[in-house]
Design a protein that fits this description.
With about 400 residues, the chain is of the alpha+beta class. It has two domains: about 260 residues, no CATH class; about 120 residues, no CATH class. It is about 40% helix and about 15% strand. The strands form five sheets. It has a four-stranded antiparallel sheet. A hairpin with an 8-residue loop joins β7 and β8. α9 packs across α11. The protein is globular. One of its GO terms (molecular function) is DNA binding. Pfam families: AlkZ-like. Keywords: DNA-binding.
């Protein structure tokens, strides 16, 4: 419908939830056939907790697709998903096609700051200078070119410089000894020169090997921002300017510039706010069939918007988020968060509803819990950022 006062198309909360169901591949009829499809649909999968990528993809795959093997193939063989730092200095898994845009729009500026900071820390707390750092990086890259991939420890054995340390914050309360290796590898990763490869251990492990990164074309930052925002609005529109600034971590002027390049359309939201969608995305979206989902901690759907009242009861926030704003595992019914879940020490998937969604919903949620338990199997999954409800359920 059109708002008679502003002539803006109104997209209310119910339609936003319908868009989310289909575009985030959560409704049963919208589920994906591959990890690459999920990555393309969601734009960015939170990768700070390695298990989140697998759980987020698994929640959205159709029957018959094995999540662990599918995600591992996408990350480590086909390289259709690439782990790298992106928005808000956070680690994500991105579709390979978006890597140039993410790097130019978001990662490169952060990498410049990261290198500047490292050089300043080395100058203050060691005898190492820029030439020493450049030679160390050259040796690391040469070693990876020969090996193909290696752990940080293996690289330290081959390049002893990496085992060096420096004093962080000399003369301050934060003074301490830090390893050169972790900082050098982080900078090289943020600059797109190396990439995280297959981990040691299971798919929940965060001890990654490193490998040479595939080269990608350089992009103009403004064009890159427009491309990234175009993909994100296709998945998550409508979104407010505040949502966009929060999700990207950009300056508000950069957000507005990208919206202008895209010719984004302003729409009215419930409560009188203004959101933005792509100019060809104004057609009404019908409700999908009823659906349930169990999404992991840091899943990109609940972490997609700064303003969340249209899918989350504010009274449920304290149970589902930690003090830093990281969301824990959530239970969904028809586009709303209705509870949380955890894995019990004995392996069972247990959940608690924070509101009563009805009998149909309870049966569907139980079925999703059983589906999740079937593919997780004997692996134990504990979120890196634990929330009150997850802690309670996981120890009950």
């Amino acid at each position: 419908m059109l708002d008679r006062m502003s002539e803006k198309r109104t997209i209310g909360a119910a339609e936003r939830r319908a868009r989310l169901a289909v575009r985030h591949r959560l409704a049963a009829g919208a589920r994906a056939g591959s990890a690459a499809e999920v990555g393309d649909a969601l734009v960015a999968l939170h990768g700070t907790d390695p298990a989140s990528v697998f759980l987020a993809v698994g929640a959205r795959l159709g029957d018959g697709v094995k999540p662990v093997g599918e995600v591992e193939r996408a990350l480590y063989e086909d390289r259709t998903l690439v782990r790298m730092h992106g928005m808000r200095h956070t680690l994500f898994a991105f579709p390979a096609s978006l890597v140039p845009a993410v790097h130019a729009s978001t990662t490169h500026p952060a990498a410049v700051r990261e290198r500047t900071t490292l050089l300043a820390h080395l100058a203050a707390g060691s005898d190492f200078d820029g030439a020493w750092l450049a030679e160390t990086e050259r040796l690391v890259l040469a070693e990876l070119a020969v090996r193909g991939e290696a752990t940080g420890a293996e690289l330290g054995d081959a390049v002893p410089r990496l085992r060096s340390t420096y004093v962080y914050g000399p003369g301050t309360r934060q003074e301490g000894v830090q390893s050169v290796a972790s900082r050098v590898l982080r900078v090289l990763g943020m600059e797109g020169r190396i990439v995280r490869g297959r981990p040691q251990g299971t798919w929940t492990s965060s001890r990654f090997r490193w490998a040479p990164a595939e080269p990608h074309p350089e992009r103009e930052p403004a064009d890159a921002r427009a491309e990234l925002l175009r993909n994100w609005l296709a998945a998550c529109g409508p979104a407010t300017e505040a949502d966009l600034k929060w999700w990207t971590g950009w300056k508000v002027t950069d957000v507005r510039g990208a919206l202008a390049v895209l010719g984004a359309s302003a729409v009215a939201l419930d409560g009188g706010g203004t959101g933005f969608v792509l100019p060809d995305d104004l057609d009404p979206v019908p409700d999908p069939e009823p659906w349930a989902a169990l999404l992991p901690a840091l899943d990109p759907t609940p972490m997609g918007w700064q303003a969340r009242d249209w899918y989350l009861d504010p009274e449920h926030r304290p149970a589902l988020y930690d003090r830093s704003g990281n969301i824990g595992p959530t239970v969904w019914w028809n586009g709303r968060i209705v509870g949380g879940w955890a894995q019990h020490p004995d392996g069972r998937i247990v959940h608690r509803l924070l509101s009563d969604p009805g009998t149909e919903a309870r049966h569907a949620i139980d079925a999703e819990a059983a589906r999740l338990a079937a593919w997780v199997g004997d692996v134990r999954v504990t979120p890196r950022f634990r929330t009150p409800l997850e802690r309670e359920l996981g120890s009950a």
